[in-house]
Design a protein that fits this description.
The chain is of the alpha/beta class. The protein is 31% helix and 24% strand. The chain has an 8-stranded mixed beta sheet, sandwiched between helices. It binds 5'-O-[(S)-butoxy(hydroxy)phosphoryl]adenosine. This is Acetyl-coenzyme A synthetase.
């Protein structure tokens, strides 16, 4: 394995204030981590005690990775909606604010939803779903903007034991149809339209287009913008109509710990997106615990995670993590640069946000606007900053820490994945000093290892020491995904076949001598565009659907703002000519098939792709050319036609 080039591992001391009143000091971390390893069962059963169980679990983890079988708290029963909502009301905290809604338009109406309101809203939504015919175990697709009704819908599903599948509002009708079909979802909850940065997103229209290809029994439509949408008689129902007269009570369905909670589609290195499945008990404990410790949450604080509920970050740290902790979570409908580049900071000041959690791509974009938009606002409410979704470059880390945090706040850089359910590697605010660019130390119960190509362990928590390799996790944790919906073989194949007996993350990583982990990025054919995972194979499939395209190969390349951009090499059928018009058609094709987030940054028309004599595309070479590292192409001796490379380099330079 190669050592990553320059790294900047200087220490940044944790602020003294972060240690005051912390729920985890350095000594406590060391003790708790050691116990989580030595007595996993005892440790996790104890953490689980913060939740209400209708049947107490007597055992924590019951799992093996070869053959793969993962269960946690298997004899326990609980309902995550009860834990996120009802129990806080029952404990006399019904007046506490659960959700603050900040609309896209800063002059729009802010909504402050108490836990008692939330309970009433979730019951109304749950009973409306039941009235529509939704039953325990059914899959419900949720395609919503970032409005409280999105969270109500998720919690309502959880309440009645339905399995939600949230689809990000930026995905296309094609993508909706594929996901609805994959999990045989008979129900969709959507809004008329979404609003982002002053633009409307035609959510209901997209659902209608998707339902030309897939079919469902019913669509529940929440009125949000009031825009004009078509309603199909007998299939589509307005929420405000159908919810009329539903009962004001709806018991939380007791769920077995291993009953499915949600499916979330995510891209992999091959094939269509996978429906990552999370179950109830382990996920509930994992996100409750990781939220509590990663953000060192203190009662009364306002927590703002900027992620959309369409991504796992929104599931775990807008909805289930904060609410199970009785926290106040801010839900923001808009975007960082609307109406101006100070929107995040204006919103922090407006709602006195204490904990702010966002993605490096947003930080880099805002950094470009300089300190002035930040300094327009009083950010003194902030106590903690967080980063998630992709590696944060030290320069962006420092800007975040110094310009936003005034050099006085802890910054947590949290590494995790859709499949991990919640935070896996991070510093804890009161326990650890920081290193800009490093995620830090393993969370309780997490056993990371670096392995070489053969799977030989080159560094882990037992051996200590510095090394670089592929990141695997060698034991299960409560929030681990249990399967790929409807395709357990694919689950086993994707995560457990490369290094039998270990969970393979797909990431490369360095561990330094202080035990800090530095994620270097994906080592598979997955790219990370603005913190969103994109399978290069998916983009390729979208491109080759065009009848002029013969072949496509897609790779990532470094992008100043997005982290990675999408670079597409395209060969055309005989007689077809490249040109701007065709390029525009291809961009549209990808947007139509996947969504705007997959729009190619570069289209490189080429007469041929570099292939081995057995016909395999040499992506390593394509990556190097896209990165403009044409001097370091490595071994090209296995190329079938070496001349192809020169043509490609020329094409790149003339771009
Ligand atoms: C991939 C997972 C974590 C939820 C949002 C993304 C990359 C994520 C970090 C980080 C370096 C990170 C990894 C990972 N990633 N967080 N703090 N530092 N890389 O979830 O879409 O499942 O993507 O995002 O490459 O494998 P996801």
């Amino acid at each position: 394995m190669t050592e990553p080039a320059a790294h900047h591992d200087e220490w940044v001391r944790r602020p003294a204030a972060a240690e005051q009143g912390t729920n985890c000091t350095a000594a406590q971390y060391a003790e708790m981590y050691a116990r989580s390893m030595a007595d996993s069962d005892g440790f996790w059963l104890e953490q689980a005690q913060r939740l209400d169980w209708s049947r107490q679990p007597t055992k924590a983890g019951d799992w093996r990775f070869d053959p793969v079988s993962i269960e946690w708290f298997v004899d326990g029963a609980l309902n995550i909606c009860h834990n996120a909502v009802d129990r806080h009301v029952a404990a006399g905290n019904g007046d506490r604010i659960a959700l603050i809604f900040e609309p896209d338009d800063p002059a729009g109406e802010v909504r402050r939803i108490t836990y008692a309101d939330l309970q009433a809203e979730v019951i109304r939504m749950a009973n409306t779903l039941k009235k529509m015919g939704v039953a325990k175990g059914d899959r419900v697709t949720i395609y919503m903007p970032m409005v409280p009704e999105g969270a109500f819908a998720m919690l309502a599903c959880a309440r009645i034991g339905a399995v939600h599948s949230v689809i990000f509002g930026g995905f296309s009708p094609e993508a909706i149809a594929g996901r609805v079909e994959d999990c045989a979802s008979d129900w969709i909850v959507c809004a008329d339209e979404g609003l982002r940065g002053g633009k409307t997103i035609p959510l209901k229209d997209n659902v209608d287009a998707a339902l030309a290809k897939a079919s469902v029994k019913a669509v529940l439509v929440v009125r949000h913008t009031g825009g004009d949408v078509a309603m199909t008689e007998g299939r589509d129902h307005w929420y405000h109509d159908l919810s009329q007269g539903v009962p004001g009570e709806c018991p939380c369905e007791p769920m077995n710990a291993e009953d499915p909670l949600f499916i979330l589609y995510t891209s992999g290195s091959t094939g269509k997106p996978k429906g990552v499945l999370h179950t109830t008990g382990g996920y509930a404990v994992w996100v409750e615990t990781t939220f509590r410790y990663t953000f060192d949450y203190r009662p009364g604080e306002v927590f703002w995670c900027t992620a959309d509920i369409g991504w796992v970050t929104g599931h775990s740290y807008v909805v289930y993590g904060p609410l199970q902790n009785g926290a106040t979570a801010l839900m923001f409908e808009g975007v960082p640069n609307h109406p101006d580049h100070d929107r995040f900071w204006a919103t922090v000041a407006k709602h006195k946000v204490n904990i702010f959690y966002t993605a490096p791509t947003a930080i880099r974009a805002l950094m470009r606007e300089g300190a002035e938009p930040v300094n327009r606002h009083d950010l003194s409410s902030l106590r903690l900053l967080g980063s998630v979704g992709e590696p944060i470059n030290p320069e962006a880390w420092r800007w975040y820490s110094e310009t936003v945090g005034k050099g006085a706040l802890p910054v947590v850089d949290t590494w995790w994945q859709t499949e991990t359910g919640g935070v896996m590697i991070t510093t804890l605010p009161g326990a650890h000093d920081m290193k800009p660019g490093s995620a830090g130390r393993p969370f309780f119960g997490i056993s990371p290892q670096l392995v070489d190509g053969d799977g030989t362990v080159i560094a882990d928590e037992r051996t200590g020491g510095a090394a670089s390799g592929n990141l695997v996790i060698d034991r299960s944790w409560p929030g681990q995904s249990r399967t790929v919906y409807g395709d357990h073989d694919r689950f086993v194949q994707t995560y457990f076949s490369t290094y039998p007996g270990k969970y393979f993350t797909g990431d490369g990583c360095r561990r330094d001598a202080d035990g800090y982990y530095w994620i270097t990025g994906r080592v598979d054919d997955v790219i990370n565009v603005s913190g969103h995972r994109m399978g290069t194979a998916e983009v390729e499939s979208a491109l080759v659907l065009h009848d002029k395209v013969a072949e496509a190969a897609v790779v990532g390349f470094p992008h100043d703002i997005k982290g990675q951009g999408i670079y597409c090499y395209v060969t055309l059928n005989a007689g077809e000519e490249p040109g701007e018009e065709l390029a525009a058609e291809l961009r549209n094709q990808v947007r139509r098939e996947i969504g705007p987030i997959a729009s190619p940054d570069h289209l490189h028309f080429t007469p041929a792709l570099p292939k081995t004599r057995s016909g395999k595309i040499m992506r390593r070479i394509l990556r190097k050319i896209a990165e403009n590292e044409t001097g370091a192409l490595g071994d090209t001796s296995t190329l079938a036609e070496p001349g192809v490379v020169d043509t490609l380099i020329e094409g790149r330079l003339n771009r």
